[in-house]
Specification:
Helix content of chain B: over 70%
CATH class of chain A: Mainly Alpha
Largest interface: A-B, 44 and 38 residues
Number of strands of chain A: 4
Structural class of chain B: mainly alpha
CATH topology of chain A: Cytochrome Bc1 Complex, Chain C
Radius of gyration of chain B: 26 Å
Oligomer: heterodimer
Strand order of the largest sheet of chain A: 1-2
Number of helices of chain B: 4
Largest sheet of chain B: none
Strand content of chain A: under 5%
Structural class of chain A: mainly alpha
Amino acid sequence: MFNVKKEINERIGLDAIVSLARKKMVPMHRHSAWYYMGGLLLFLCMIQGLTGIMLLFYYKPSAETAYQSIAEIMVNVPYGWLIRSVHHWASNLMIVAAFVHFFSTFFVKAYRRPREITWLTGMALLVVVLFLGYTGYTLPFDERAFFALNVGTDMPGAIPVVGKYMLEFLRGGENVGPQTLNRFFALHVGLLPAALLLIVGVHLLLVQLLGMSVPVSILKKAEAEKKEIPAKPMFPHLLWHDVINCLLLLGLVVTLAVIMPSELGLEIDYLKPAPEGVKPDWFFLWVYQILKWLPTFIAGIEGEVVGIVGLAIAACIIALAPFIDRRSQRGELSPAFTILGIVSLLVFVICTLIGYFS
Amino acid sequence: MKKICVLSLIGMLLFIGLLARYVCAAEPAAPAPAATIATEEVKDAASEADQKVSLAQVEKSRVVTGDRLYGLAGLWLLIALVIFLIRYQIRDDEKLYQEGYYSKDLE
């Protein structure tokens, strides 16, 4: 009888891969739960890819047709409302998961040698995921998207020297118009997913090559007690747990999509003035809130410019943490960077909440 | 393991069914090209307006119906069943691991 498994094995040596996977161990300690975040993020990426392709079947990317095609998807296409809502909620959860993964990695100092490049690719992934969320938010081209485009593209416009060019590049002109939608569509379905695939590939390869990082505190404790850190095989132990988490996440995404389907705002009226208190999507609210608090001028420089430059410097410090945090590199506890992480997390959460409710 | 595969297959078949329904939906016919006679132009514009999906229709499509909740309950049931079986599988794997099976090379 024809044995599919045997035939495939003869050609690509599947057993060798399985044998290798069985030998790959994952350390088990009180922070092990954070290891699952990467898997969840990857699963959400897969949902986004699949539902995104499905939406492309009916979405018409032009200023005249985009809004109506989304309305068609919601009303006339079978399960269109579900596919769009799953895409919407999975995107929001993907951003949440990316932030949780980022902060957990930062707190356990998983960026220590030899994982500096893994950290940098992770930071790049966070940026790509944020921009995927933002560009996707604008594609329905409704009133909400129109004002979000205005507010969002204004922010890079405040960057000194290159700001003007960035603004024109993003808007396709001086003002937000039909041409802006084409640019955002190209970014959302072309450039950003390609960048995401490439960076995810490198990130996963590095994770497989270097294995999981163990927090300094756990290493020190094991060293003091002269005990080995317990470990379990990645295959099938971690894989099965990953499958359980992904199934629960799938249930959560579909539940949110059914209970709170994705909305569609009013059609764009270019002549209508922007309403009071226009806000960006929730994941950029913290930036918006910080910039709102700043005075118009600080030491003769525009407040917005100072804010953008300050935030960019803060982001650079965090991105370069593996090269600045010398204590962690020496395998010592580094409370300064833990405090930096706590402050960053508090600023992010508090500013987002204030921005949302104000 | 076989039970998990069977349940996953059921889940996948349901998803493929949904996918087929979604992908095979007929798109609304595009409005006819602009006519040269003024009366027909008016007619075209009117039928185009009729074909447009209104915001009220979109809002109606967002209502949580009984059918949707039944579907959701079905999905959670399938997920719970698969997780239940995976837990068993993990227990078996744990036993094999304790016996040193996973440290052996495959022949």
